[in-house]
């Protein structure tokens, strides 16, 4: 019994220490700053649906310039490079394609003070003691949705810097849908710098074909987004995907996001319905008749019921 009491006291003291380090919202703000401001390189492990995939991530901060390189280490050697507003995909076959994106389309959570203020209407934040991850002491931030229309998050942040070491995405019952985290990590101002400078020289030497037009478009559709989700400031944009012109808009609440894709249909009726991969859910449907038919697809890290409800709510703007 004395051992149990002693263990409980230690756990309480550890949780109290974590709470004294600042609020959960303050830690999330530190997470966003650290991800952008630090230079680091490490091995990422992504787990979903019983599968494990590893990547090497290199992030370099050079004054006002930010550069990232993600390399798939399992299976095909696909790569993604990000610098400024450019996202470059390099296939295992060696072909490179530049996709025009905007900062709002970043895969990182938006943990700015404005976004967190908006998120308080949809999530509850809590700070707990963490554990050692990749050899580094961490604190744990729990993000619990107040409604069942989105997932929960658990972020493990390095205690000394706030850098995200591991994240979990949780279903409504608390089960883990996917995990992404470092198994090894180096944080140093010089890490990856030689690779970054080489990539800059290479990008100046040869142009990479653009695969997407990024001009803003007039909205064609109206939909009902869950409370707290707002559209990107740029609104609808045109992309080239698989040789076809597709219009897309992304909505986010800071911690979760979904995108709506609109594609004119020519010829055969496509397959529609629902699909999933990891925590990502997709629902599609066809609107219109005759030559005026459109395939509408909603993709996001949200519960399937939410994604389907968004897809069902889409109607032409003129209605």
What is the H/E order? HHEEEEEEHEEEEEHEEEEEEEEHE
> Over all CA atoms, what is the radius of gyration?
21 Å
CATH class of the largest domain: Mainly Beta
Largest sheet, spatial ordering of strands: 6-5-4-3-2-1-11-10-9-8-7
Structural class given helices, strands, pairing? alpha+beta
Which outline best applies?
A: globular
| CATH-defined fold name of the largest domain | outer membrane lipoprotein receptor (LolB), chain A
Separation, N- and C-terminal Cα atoms = 69 Å
Number of helices: 5
Task: Detail the topology: elements first, then pairings.
Elements: H1 2-19, H2 24-37, E1 40-48, E2 51-62, E3 65-72, E4 79-83, E5 86-90, E6 96-100, H3 113-119, E7 123-133, E8 136-145, E9 152-158, E10 164-170, E11 176-187, H4 193-205, E12 221-222, E13 230-231, E14 237-241, E15 244-252, E16 257-264, E17 273-277, E18 280-289, E19 292-300, H5 304-313, E20 315-316
Antiparallel strand pairs: 1-2, 1-11, 2-3, 3-4, 4-5, 5-6, 7-8, 8-9, 9-10, 10-11, 12-20, 13-15, 14-15, 15-16, 16-19, 17-18, 18-19
Quick structural overview:
By secondary structure, the chain is α+β, with helices and mostly antiparallel strands. 19% of the residues lie in helices and 45% in strands.
Descriptive account of the structure:
The protein is of the alpha+beta class. It folds into two domains: 2-65 and 104-189, Clam (outer membrane lipoprotein receptor (LolB), chain A); 221-316, Phosphorylase Kinase, domain 1 (2-Layer Sandwich). The protein is 19% helix and 45% strand. The protein contains five helices and 20 strands. The chain has helices spanning 2-19, 24-37, 113-119, 193-205, 304-313; strands spanning 40-48, 51-62, 65-72, 79-83, 86-90, 96-100, 123-133, 136-145, 152-158, 164-170, 176-187, 221-222, 230-231, 237-241, 244-252, 257-264, 273-277, 280-289, 292-300, 315-316. Strands 6-5-4-3-2-1-11-10-9-8-7 form an eleven-stranded antiparallel beta sheet. Strand 2 (51-62) and strand 3 (65-72) form a beta hairpin.
């Amino acid at each position: 019994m004395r051992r149990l009491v002693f263990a409980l006291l230690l756990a309480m003291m550890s949780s109290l220490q974590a709470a004294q380090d600042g609020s959960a919202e303050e830690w999330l703000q530190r997470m966003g700053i650290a991800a952008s401001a630090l230079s680091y390189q490490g091995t990422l492990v992504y787990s979903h649906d019983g599968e494990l995939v590893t990547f090497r991530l290199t992030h370099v901060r050079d004054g006002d310039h930010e550069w990232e390189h993600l390399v798939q280490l399992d299976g095909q050697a696909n790569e993604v490079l990000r610098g400024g507003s450019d996202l470059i995909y390099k296939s295992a076959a060696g072909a490179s394609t530049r996709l025009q994106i905007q900062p709002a389309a970043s895969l990182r959570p938006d943990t700015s003070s404005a976004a967190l203020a908006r998120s308080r209407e949809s999530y509850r934040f809590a700070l707990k003691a963490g554990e050692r991850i990749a050899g580094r002491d961490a604190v744990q931030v729990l993000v619990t949705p107040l409604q069942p229309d989105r997932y929960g998050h658990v972020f493990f942040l390095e205690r000394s810097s706030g850098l995200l070491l591991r994240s979990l995405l949780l279903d409504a019952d608390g089960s883990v849908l996917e995990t992404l985290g470092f198994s090894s990590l180096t944080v140093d101002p010089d890490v990856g710098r030689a690779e970054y400078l080489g990539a800059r020289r290479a990008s100046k030497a040869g142009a990479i074909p653009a695969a997407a037009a990024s001009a803003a478009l007039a909205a064609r559709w109206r939909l009902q987004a869950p409370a707290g989700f707002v559209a990107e400031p740029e609104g609808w944009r045109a992309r080239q995907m698989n040789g076809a012109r597709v219009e897309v808009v992304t909505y986010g609440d800071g911690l979760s996001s979904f995108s709506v894709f609109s594609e004119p249909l020519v010829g055969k009726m496509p397959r529609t319905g629902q699909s999933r991969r990891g925590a990502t859910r997709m629902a599609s449907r066809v609107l219109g008749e005759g030559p005026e038919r459109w395939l509408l697809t909603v993709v996001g890290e949200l519960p399937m019921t939410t994604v389907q409800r968004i897809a069902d709510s889409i109607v032409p703007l003129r209605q």
